[in-house]
Specification:
The protein has a five-stranded mixed beta sheet. The longest helix has 12 residues. It has 81 residues and is an alpha+beta fold. A hairpin with a 2-residue loop joins strand 3 and strand 4.
C-alpha cells in the first residue's frame, strides 16, 4: 500500500536534489526503505549507515516504520573541526 510522505532536505541532500522539500508517494515500509528509494532516485552516494533520520523533533532508528503523512528529514554525517 502506498503512502504520501514529506521529505525535507538539508545540506548534502538539498544540494544533490535541488529542492528543500518535496512530497512523495512511496511503497517504503521503513525509514531505511524510504532513504533507499530517495538515494536511488536522486543519486545520493552516502551509505545508509552514515545517515540519520528525524521524524517530528526526534532522531529515529532507520528501522522504524514509515507512516502516512510523516515528515522525514535525512541528516548527513556532520564534519567537525
Amino acid at each position: 500500500m502506498s503512502k504520501r510522505v514529506r521529505i525535507d532536505y538539508y545540506a548534502y541532500f538539498r544540494d544533490r536534489r535541488g529542492l528543500a522539500t518535496e512530497e512523495v508517494e512511496t511503497q517504503a515500509g521503513t525509514l531505511a526503505d524510504l532513504y533507499k528509494e530517495a538515494a536511488a532516485a536522486n543519486g545520493f552516494a552516502l551509505p545508509i549507515g552514515s545517515v540519520k533520520a528525524i521524524v517530528g523533533d526526534e532522531f529515529r532508528p532507520m528501522s522504524d516504520p514509515l507512516e502516512e503523512g510523516t515528515t522525514v528529514v535525512f541528516v548527513p554525517p556532520v564534519a567537525g573541526g
